[in-house]
Fold:
Amino acid sequence: QVHLVESGGGLVQAGGSLRLSCAASGRTFSSNSMAWFRQAPGKEREFVAAISWSGSRTYYADSVKGRFTISRDNAKNTVNLQMNSLKPEDTAVYYCAGGARSSYAKGSYDYWGQGTQVTVSS
Structure:
């Protein structure tokens, strides 16, 4: 079992940066692929980025490629999402997720955090 808690969300102007963190508890964290998803009001939850258990492979949605960077520290049981050049369309609740393998599909992840709000003003 893995328990996930996100932090770092907030209000930022377009063009600004935020760094989200996800703290995990549970002995299986280092063996899990981790991901970030987001959900805007009235929209489906969508994939943002994922990272393999070792951190050697990363995956990004086209909409964030080149602007967002996912990373993890297995010694600290954390996964981070550095978000640069933020746009108003990045506004959403951001969720941390963990699962057995990296995937773009939300159904592939077994563990979810409660989410953190990111609001980008124009």
